[in-house]
Write a structure and sequence with these properties.
282 residues, alpha+beta, Alpha-Beta Plaits, 2 domains, two-stranded antiparallel ribbon, 8 helices, transmembrane helix, diguanylate cyclase, membrane, Nucleotide_cyclase, Diguanylate_Cyclase
Length: 282
């Protein structure tokens, strides 16, 4: 019989594993003790140094074996329970370190790690709640938090499975949309923005109608993740500059027809930039 004595810390996140492991080790201790006693007792009896009859010695040996097995099981159960608590605490800490507390989505750190692993048929979408600072100023931060929670719930439901969503900070969110064609990924982002715009959010004695702007950049194709993030951020800015409540893909951002919608003078450009910056810092 072969029983592995190797136990990894991750195996002890389940209490059942602890007791199974302890029973296995107890059985092994009983078996080894019994074998040792049965091998030692006959020679001792033959040499006349066994203080009791051989039959009684065998009985005492079996009892001793079970006592040893019980002791081993108890020690392993206590040690396993301690390892279980340590493992659970470690897993919870790791989960907290990767999760945004308010939204329940991945935080920026975890999203960056997911972005580094993403490749192939995928795109990066950055969302920003339009005029979020005005919501906080008018209705209060409790209502602003309710908006963040509501937006997060819709993003989490829309981007599950291979796709992931995260809160990047403030009212800015990110999503890695995996699978499908480029047109299908764009359509999915557009549908999420449309869903957010069509249903007002009720919280803290206020009802808030929101819109969301989004910028999309494709992943893969030999471009670095930093370049893709920068492209998505620029298209988000363009969506804001074009009047908000829209989705802009990086390919659309190159279209000459969009330029006439941008601020024509420096003062207007600075105002637009300040407005976007305030929204992101709200």
């Amino acid at each position: 019989m072969r029983i592995s004595l190797q136990a990894e810390l991750g195996d002890f996140q389940d209490r059942h594993t602890i007791y199974v492991f302890a029973r296995k080790m107890s059985f092994l201790a009983v078996t080894l003790s019994s074998v040792v006693i049965l091998l030692i007792l006959p020679p001792l009896d033959w040499m006349g140094v066994l203080p009791v009859p051989l039959a009684d010695g065998v009985v005492y040996g079996v009892v001793l074996s079970w006592l040893i097995g019980g002791a081993v099981s108890s020690v392993l159960s206590v040690a396993g329970h301690a390892m279980h608590q340590l493992s659970v605490s470690r897993a919870e800490f790791e989960q907290l370190s990767r999760t945004d507390v308010l939204s329940g989505l991945l935080n920026r750190r975890a999203f960056t790690e997911a972005l580094e692993r993403a490749d192939g048929d995928a795109c990066l979408a950055i969302f920003d709640v339009d005029r979020f600072k005005a919501i906080n100023d008018r209705f209060g931060h409790a209502c602003g938090d309710a908006v963040i929670v509501a937006v997060s719930a819709i993003l989490a439901a829309a981007f599950d499975g291979r796709s992931v969503a995260a809160r990047l900070g403030g009212e800015e969110f990110g999503a890695i949309v995996v699978g499908g064609s480029q047109a299908q990924r764009i359509e999915k982002v557009q549908s999420v923005c449309a869903r957010l715009a069509e249903k007002p959010i009720a919280a803290d004695n206020c009802v808030v109608a929101i819109t969301v702007s989004a910028g999309i950049a494709e992943l893969g194709g030999g471009r670095g993740k930093a370049g893709a993030y920068s492209a998505a951020d620029k298209t988000l800015y363009l969506a804001k500059a074009l009047g908000r409540n829209r989705v802009v893909h990086e390919n659309e951002g190159l279209h000459p027809g969009w330029r006439r919608h941008l601020p024509q003078d420096a003062a207007a450009a600075r105002a637009m930039s300040a407005d976007c910056d305030e929204a992101r810092l709200a």
